[in-house]
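pipeline stage [seq->struct] | target=Isoprenyl transferase | organism=Streptomyces ardesiacus | residues=228
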Amino acid sequence: MDGNGRWAQRRSLPRTAGHRAAEATVIEIIETARSAGVEWLTLYAFSTENWNRPGTEVDYLMGLVRRVVRKHAPLLLARGIRCRFLGVTDPRIPRELAQDFDDLTTLTDGNRGMTLTVAFDHGGRRDIVEAARSLIRSGKRADEVTEHLFAQHLPFPDTPDVDLVIRTSGEQRISNFMLWKVAYAEWTFPDVLWPDFRAPDFLACLHTYRRRDRRFGTVPPRTNGDPR
């Protein structure tokens, strides 16, 4: 979810105003994804590298996220959405916010609709390192390690591989996001700042994805008259 700061700067507002404006987009995209039949939605909210931002901005984000979680918990429960948080390990996360994350996870655990994962204090490299450490602690021999076994040691191993990554604001980089899971993801880079991103933009990305020819490294079978 990229572009909050630039959205604010273009309006001569503090960066925090962009983060505040992003709340409406978050809720609209959750609702739109659910209505479109998306079963797994992940929102990349805060990376391990985001701790390097100015302390005042980080503090504001922590307070904003807590308010958003508490405000919209009843809606998420009513919509049958199961909520999970990917990351959330840094001791700098306020204790009250970490508790709100746990409470929302518990509250919605029985839901069987869309699974919403919020990547907060998330880093793809860290996840891979922690999975390797977990494998070592399990005592597996090197020749026993397979891709499937390794994936079982990643956070939330039931999460399927990512099909589509939407990075708003036109930036084109991975930014340490779910590095294992995005191996064969399709990518779209809409040139829209996150606070301006709305349902039609999201649905346009889904339409683009559905038109992609996903071969996963293989060659499609030939048909009669196919010159390949």
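stage status: PASS
auto-comment: The longest helix spans residues 55-78. The helical segments are 4-9, 15-35, 55-78, 95-107, 124-138, 147-151, 199-211.
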